[in-house]
């Protein structure tokens, strides 16, 4: 979670009037959006905001409604009710999204075109031409670190390289808002780091970023705020600290592993195999000696212990009752 | 935007050399095989030869003369055993020839019965007729040979009558020719003039070039339209719909690309037909151009509609193969429609293959002006427009859900 800032941030206001700027503290605002497919409720009056210049992670179990929400923002699905605003303006059902960049989860490239040809094509589809297009493509090749592979067909690229080109094709037109659907699926840790360096560069230029992810550490480490969505509703949003404070609290979880079966002790929960005792503590240094003494006096012999700080994982489990991939 | 869609398609084709091979070379190879098969068999009086065995039980000068006259017909191939060296082979009895017909070695055997010459010259008591031993599975050959036997024997009879009349009147050959009586005994002569083939270079091959071209035009267009489904599957379509590109621009770009590729495909096919088989493409350029634009346009719209109807590429391929083969068979791409029954020919007109081929036949076979192509152009253009509109409606599923 970035709290210190990674360099200066410039919020770009291209084409936005003074009144719009006043009204557009939010890059994207989802207002009470509902969407059903037959008898299935994909979005159940969901609502949250992506603030301008913010990196927001959208978390949720499979089927929670993340993809439908992203498709609604992109104009690929029409909400049954509610509305979506971008940069202070209501988005029409389709079109009117020139300020938006979209990076799908799949490698949405032409595999039988070179990296340069792919970038050139998607640049043109986003309205670029002439020198602007050429400069944007050159920039993207440098940005992705693929300038030396510009003339190679993308089908010959590694998964991480394809991902980088995939992202670059969505940002050639310098969008103010960028949606990324699982941008690091199937890539190795090095490529993932590279991708987040790329995204950081966009963010520093003022791009507001909304990404869906299954990687909790990505949400924790790479995003300013987190929205958790489940059953089509945004059930929590805030910084990691805010989410922890509002859900599991700041207490540490201390797990004692015993050499023999655990005695029954008040103030502890016992694991099913009766080999672990679990306690919640507010201050480890003050409370831990007392806990160890109580166990020893109760007849237990501690062989190991772990201290778990509150995490996004515990917040997620607390809120949804499910693991992220369920 | 439309230009970018076309550009992307052409670049993808350029990088996929196999696709170029399939699009442009395979149809030419296919057409060449067809052209070799049919070029020497249909049209221009080059019908396949009929195998015929001759049985000469009469064994007279006249029967030998008759046998020799039969052997002079190009249409007939007179049977001879493998070990027979030179000259005309005739059986002296019926049974061996009958056996040949029964086992299928020859479809027909003509029997010149004993006494045939005598009956013709009036020295015999009763009329003796020629007999034809026929394999009824080939009725056309029977009809052809019957006609040839009549024509050959008729000519011989006419010549004999002339000779007897001239002898009776004691006229020299020149005096007889000059006399009005010669016209009476002259055999009926028939001169066949091929009003289509005259002064034209290989119109039959042009018909096959068109047939194969239209069939592969459809296959090529469907292959290209399948990119829409690929783009849907890998979310490129989502990305495109999220850009400044509209669905109508995307479809128009795809249509234009397929039409351009189709036109090039057909042009290469006919250029090869001109080089290798002497089809007169240059001489029919205006008609060829308008027919090719209209046909390629209709094929492109048809392929787009199929893609919009199908859920994935595998489904598209399966449906397209069945539909295109049926349309090609009914529409005359595989065998000419004129060999089909009347009802089948009428059914064939629901396919645009038939309309396209009719147009090409008008251009290359009948050498009709462009104005004569209006019905075909109207049907093909209307097909292209209607199917494109249908595709646009169906494509709403790709825009938003």
Summarize the structure.
The complex is a heterodimer of chains A (326) and B (401). Chain A is α/β, with parallel strands linked by helices and 326 residues long.
Descriptive report:
The complex is a heterodimer of chains A (326) and B (401). Chain A has 326 residues and is of the alpha/beta class. Chain A has three domains: 170 residues, P-loop containing nucleotide triphosphate hydrolases (Rossmann fold, 3-Layer(aba) Sandwich), CATH 3.40.50.300; 58 residues, no CATH class; 58 residues, Alpha-Beta Plaits (2-Layer Sandwich), CATH 3.30.70. In chain A, 33% of the residues lie in helices and 26% in strands. In chain A, a hairpin with a 2-residue loop joins strand 1 and strand 2. In chain A, helix 4 packs antiparallel against helix 5. The N terminus of chain A is likely disordered. By secondary structure, chain B is mainly alpha-helical. Chain B folds into two domains: 243 residues, no CATH class; 135 residues, Periplasmic binding protein-like II (D-Maltodextrin-Binding Protein, domain 2). Chain B has a four-stranded mixed β-sheet, sandwiched between helices. In chain B, strand 1, helix 3 and strand 2 form a beta-alpha-beta unit. Chain B is elongated. In chain B, 38% of the residues are buried. The interface between A and B is medium-sized, with 35 and 24 residues.
């Amino acid at each position: 979670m970035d709290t210190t800032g990674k360099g200066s941030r410039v919020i770009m206001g291209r084409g936005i009037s003074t009144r719009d700027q006043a009204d557009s503290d939010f890059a994207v605002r989802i207002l009470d959006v509902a969407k059903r497919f037959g008898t299935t409720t994909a979005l159940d009056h969901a609502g949250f905001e992506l603030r301008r210049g913010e990196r927001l992670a959208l978390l949720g179990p499979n089927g929670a409604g993340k993809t439908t929400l992203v498709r609604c923002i992109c104009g690929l699905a029409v909400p049954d009710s509610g509305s979506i605003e971008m940069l202070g303006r209501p988005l029409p059902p389709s079109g009117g999204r020139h300020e938006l960049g979209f990076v799908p989860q799949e490698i949405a490239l032409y595999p039988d075109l070179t990296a340069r040809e792919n970038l050139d094509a998607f640049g043109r589809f986003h309205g670029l031409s002439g020198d602007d297009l050429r400069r944007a493509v050159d920039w993207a090749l440098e940005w992705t670190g693929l300038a030396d592979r510009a003339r190679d067909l993308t089908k010959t690229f590694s998964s991480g390289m394809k991902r980088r080109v995939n992202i670059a094709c969505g940002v050639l037109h310098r969008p103010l808002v960028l949606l990324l659907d699982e941008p690091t699926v199937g890539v190795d840790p090095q490529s993932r780091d590279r991708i987040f360096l790329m995204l950081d560069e966009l963010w520093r230029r003022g791009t507001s970023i909304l990404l869906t992810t299954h990687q909790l550490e990505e949400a924790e480490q790479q995003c300013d705020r987190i929205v958790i969505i489940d059953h089509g509703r945004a059930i929590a949003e805030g910084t990691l600290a805010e989410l922890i404070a509002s859900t599991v609290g700041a207490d540490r979880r201390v797990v004692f592993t015993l050499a023999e079966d655990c005695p029954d002790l008040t103030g502890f929960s016992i694991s099913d195999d009766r080999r672990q005792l679990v306690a919640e503590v507010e201050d480890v240094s003050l409370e831990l000696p007392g806990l160890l003494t109580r166990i020893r006096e109760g007849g237990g012999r501690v062989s190991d212990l772990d201290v778990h700080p509150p995490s996004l994982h515990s917040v997620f489990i607390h809120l949804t009752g499910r693991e992220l991939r369920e | 935007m439309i230009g970018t869609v076309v550009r992307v398609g052409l670049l993808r084709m350029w990088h996929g050399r196999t696709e170029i091979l399939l699009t442009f070379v395979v149809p030419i190879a296919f057409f060449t095989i067809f052209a070799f098969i049919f070029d020497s068999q249909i049209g221009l009086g080059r019908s396949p030869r009929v195998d015929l065995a001759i049985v000469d039980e009469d064994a007279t000068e006249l029967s030998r003369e008759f046998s020799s006259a039969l052997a002079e017909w190009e249409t007939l191939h007179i049977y001879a055993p493998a070990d027979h060296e030179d000259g005309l082979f005739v059986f002296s009895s019926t049974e061996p020839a009958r056996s040949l017909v029964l086992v299928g070695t020859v479809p027909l055997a003509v029997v010149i019965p004993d006494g045939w010459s005598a009956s013709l010259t009036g020295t015999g008591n009763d009329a003796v007729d020629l007999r034809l031993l026929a394999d009824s599975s080939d009725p056309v050959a029977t009809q052809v040979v019957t006609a040839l036997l009549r024509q050959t024997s008729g000519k011989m009879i006419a010549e004999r009558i002339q000779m007897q009349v001239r002898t009776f009147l004691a006229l020299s050959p020149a005096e007889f020719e000059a006399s009005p009586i010669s016209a009476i005994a002259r055999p009926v002569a028939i001169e066949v003039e091929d009003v289509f083939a005259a002064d034209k270079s290989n119109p039959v091959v042009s018909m096959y070039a068109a047939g194969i071209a239209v069939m592969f035009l459809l296959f090529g267009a469907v292959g290209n339209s399948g990119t829409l489904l690929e783009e849907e599957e890998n979310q490129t379509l989502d990305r495109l719909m999220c850009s400044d590109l509209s669905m109508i621009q995307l479809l128009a770009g795809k249509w234009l690309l397929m039409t351009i590729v189709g036109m090039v495909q057909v042009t290469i096919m006919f250029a090869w037909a001109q080089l290798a088989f002497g089809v007169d493409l240059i001489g029919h350029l205006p008609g060829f151009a308008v027919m090719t634009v209209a046909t390629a346009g209709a094929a492109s719209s048809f392929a787009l509609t199929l893609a919009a109807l199908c859920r994935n590429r595998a489904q598209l391929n399966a449906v397209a193969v069945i539909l295109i083969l049926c349309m090609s068979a009914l529409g005359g791409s595989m065998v000419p429609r004129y060999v089909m029954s009347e009802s089948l020919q009428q059914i064939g007109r629901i396919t645009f293959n038939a309309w396209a081929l009719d147009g090409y036949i008008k251009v290359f076979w009948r050498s009709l002006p462009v104005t004569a192509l209006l019905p075909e152009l109207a049907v093909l253009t209307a097909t292209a427009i209607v199917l494109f509109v249908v595709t646009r409606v169906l494509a709403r599923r790709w825009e938003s859900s």
